[in-house]
Structure formats: structure tokens, C-alpha cells
Amino acid sequence: MQTAAVASEEQVVVLELAGEAYGVEIGRVQEIIRMQPITRVPNGPAFFEGVTNLRGRVIPVLDLRKRFGLEATPPTRRSRIVVAELGEHTVGLVVDAVSEVLRVSADAVEPPSALVTTADSAYLRGVAKLDERLVLLLDLARILGPAEHAALAG
To answer: Of 62, 54, 71, 124, nearest to 93 (Cα)?
Structure first.
């Protein structure tokens, strides 16, 4: 019976953006690093911060605040770069903070309501209800559109 319980829950890394909690499947997160120098690349989308050198690998860095249409803010001591898989690409995602890893049971997750299901929120795969708070669950593969994925591929 234990395996059924394990199968019906997932672990998510909780990211903070503008005071809201977003959850990302732990299996998509490679590592979480402190802010480091980012080299700007001209003519990219507004949310594309540039590239950074991660132990010899050059990876693109996206600002999730800008991607989600939130007000951009300068990095703080709590800001992090979450190195994650977006489809077949590895990218860095700038977030305000990474707060915790949670276990979320499948019955605590609801699909995003029709009110929040717009073209801009296609990256939401659900909302987890945890005690007195909500965690918006992200589908990282949908953060970028087809043209943006193609641009990453070069």
C-alpha cells in the first residue's frame, strides 16, 4: 500500500517571485546557485538576461519575473539562479528566492481555473492547496514558446 501513496505525491522545489510561491518538479532542477555574473546578449527577448558560465558550460539565463510580466527588481542576497531543464534545454532561471522542498499529494492539486488559463499562463499546470497557502505549479517545458525554444537551440 505504501507504493500507491508514493506514486500519488511529488516533490516540488518552491520558488518565490514577487511574494508568491511557485512549485517546480524536483526532477527538472539540476542545481540552485547564488547569483553570479551574467553576460548580456544583444537583441534577445526582454526576459532573457544573457548567459553565464557554469563550471565551463555556457547556459542561457532567464528572469522569471520578467517572463511572467512582473515588475523587475534588482537581485538581493536571497536571489538565486535555478538551473533547470526546459524541454531539451538547460537554462538558468533567476528567482527572488528558493524557500523549500515540499511533498505535494496529487489530491491537493487542482487544475488552473478558467480565470487564470490565458495564453500568458499556459505554463501553469495546477495549483497546490497546502494548509493555508497556495503554490502555483509550473510546467517548465511551457515557459518558452516554440520560437523561443528554437532561438535557444541556435
So the answer is: 62
pTM for this model (two decimals): 0.86
User: Which domain, by its residues, includes 16?
Assistant: 2-153
At 6, which CATH number? 2.40.50.180
Backbone angles phi, psi at 105, to 5 degrees: -80, 150
SS (H, E, C) 96-146: CEEEEEEEEEHHHEECCCCCCCCHHHCCEEEEEEECCEEEEEECHHHCCCH
Give 95-150 pLDDT, tens digit per residue. 999 999 999 999 999 887 755 555 556 788 899 998 889 999 998 888 877 667 66
